[in-house]
Amino acid sequence: MDGEWTHHGKVRARQQGAEMVVVVDGLTTQAKYYKPLIYEFFRKAWRGGRPAWGEFEVTIQMEYLGDPPWLDLDNLAKAILDSIKGYAFHDDAQVARLLVERLPGERERITVTVVKRPDVEAGHP
User: Which of 53, 71, 54 is nearest to 62 (CA)?
Assistant: First the structure.
């Protein structure tokens, strides 16, 4: 099951080791649209791993066609982090690195990549 895509509506996701990828097809200028959409995917369809403790790196890429949509990336990030909390990690305070970017693409979609950082002992980098 590791690495296989799980689909539900406009959302699909997979988990391979320490990395989870969530893809949402289509775009809207309303960031609040994504929280219930992704949350419902996890609640109804996700059969992957459980949330983990430790630190995470999250990359959110919003791909668009034509002119870039007017969407505040900080609002998008908050909606996405709220929707994956409890599935990728326990609390969004565990996100040690966050990159959110808007870029031209081949299709309109949002791709979220969550990677668990290796655990580091206190005082040892």
Answer: 71
CATH node for 8-116:
3.30.1330.70
Q: Which amino acid is at 38?
A: I
Rounded distance, CA 37 to CA 10, Å? Answer: 8
Quote the CA–CA distance of 102 and 52 in Å, as a whole number. Answer: 28
pLDDT of 123 strictly over 80: no
Burial tier of 18 (Cβ tally within 10 Å: 0-12, 13-18, 19+) = middle
CB-CB neighbours of 26 under 10 Å = 11
How much is the average pLDDT of 40-67? 93
Question: What's the pTM?
Answer: 0.90
Whole-angstrom Cα distance, residue 83 to residue 91?
11
The one-letter amino acid code at 46 reads: W
Q: Count CB neighbours of 68 within 10 A.
A: 12
Domain ranges for the chain, please list them.
Answer: 8-116
Under 8 Å between Cβ of 62 and 80:
no
Per-residue tokens: 38: 């992704």
